[in-house]
Write the structure tokens for this entry.
Amino acid sequence: MNDPFHRPEKQPLYAAVRDAVLERIGSGVWAPGDILPSEFALADEFQVSQGTVRKALDDLAARNLVVRRQGKGTFVAVHTPERALFHFFHIVTDDGGRELPTTSRVLSCRRRRPDRLEAGALKLDRQDRVVEIRRIREMDGKAAIAESVCVPARWFPDLDKRAVEEVPNELYQMYEERYGITVHRASEQLRAIGADSDDAAALGIKPGTPLLEISRVAETLDGRPVEIRRSRCLTDGRHYQSVIV
Amino acid sequence: MNDPFHRPEKQPLYAAVRDAVLERIGSGVWAPGDILPSEFALADEFQVSQGTVRKALDDLAARNLVVRRQGKGTFVAVHTPERALFHFFHIVTDDGGRELPTTSRVLSCRRRRPDRLEAGALKLDRQDRVVEIRRIREMDGKAAIAESVCVPARWFPDLDKRAVEEVPNELYQMYEERYGITVHRASEQLRAIGADSDDAAALGIKPGTPLLEISRVAETLDGRPVEIRRSRCLTDGRHYQSVIV
DNA sequence: CAGTGGTCTAGACCACATC
DNA sequence: ATGTGGTCTAGACCACTGG
């Protein structure tokens, strides 16, 4: 058995089960979309009661890591377009509707060394390489977001060649399907800035126009940063929606 | 018994218990800070097992409505300054620190009729009155946020007189202690705007300077809107922090 | 029909807080 | 010592899915 199911210290049983399952998801034993063994099967394997497995899986379900379907089973969560948009795209129209970016016009896509900030955020060495995609995203037929996306080249080997041809508007599904990398959480920092001359030209506005800048760091399951992204958004008839509970 | 504990339709038992407890919290039978009856006492009253009560209370705890303390009991959540800041104040310094607004300089505090937007957001009639507080909040010794807060006068009877003297930087604890109104959730809409002449003067900047505008609608337990707030923030060495899970 | 997750119960024991 | 919530177990039954 390569998974001895250690229970470090005085951690509750269900937490140990949860972490063991998480470990297997993170390491790819169970990939996104896969069905997990049933609660009873897991209980038997880990030598705990079914109720304990249930608590572990409920915990994972609460964090959007697995999806439970009565009568069918428990599945590893996948980045459907719906999930990606609902969780990771927070720009909506002022009347509350969800208007989605349609086209994604790639301006450039190149492989280069990271600058100091990028290397720090992505935990890379200055010798490593990153792939940077710069693009314009349109909403309602008009340029709305100027965006630069930066990922470690090591994990996305041929991205710089492929991306220029056709990059989907939502990247995370592609990360998962093509490179086996699942984005699980992200933190965003928002600021108001004035458009620089490049962004102004790309967005068809005057330099200095107020833009909403969103700086995102996205992480995998195990907390490794996999992407940094800086979006400059025209908030004209639109806004960034945030819910506080 | 004025609380017959109805179970509408095929709702699970624990959900009925949860809603019954929620109803008593919302109606003030159990106020913020109060201790709830023990799990066994509630189980006895509702004629269900202790495990079912546990699930109901765990659900409420997951929503920050009650706080469970092993060995002590279960308490109705209160707006401590820590909770208020952690949950409802998202401006942090760029280096990740939590720098808090110190002073709150009230510019005006008056009672008036709501405009159309305010009436709509607060679900008021145009005949009703609101109290509007306009203030400047300082961070690191410098004016950082221009803010206007608007609440229904009916629920905050003497706020217009009291507020001008001394308004705390965090209002929600005052709402709770003085007016028995608990803010439970809020939604925020963020935009980039250019400073108008008033804000520019108040913040000591040039008109047109990019500002982060945060429009918040805050709600009580039962979902009634109790406050709308529009903050214009200088994001200079600071940003709005948002976490996506 | 069999298999899955969802609910509900009952009871045992543990960890913590208070007196 | 007593009472609280936290964990864990075992078993029953329900609701949903698919063959």
Notes: Residues 38-40, 54, 57, 68-74 of chain A lie near DNA strand C (CB under 10 Å from a C1').
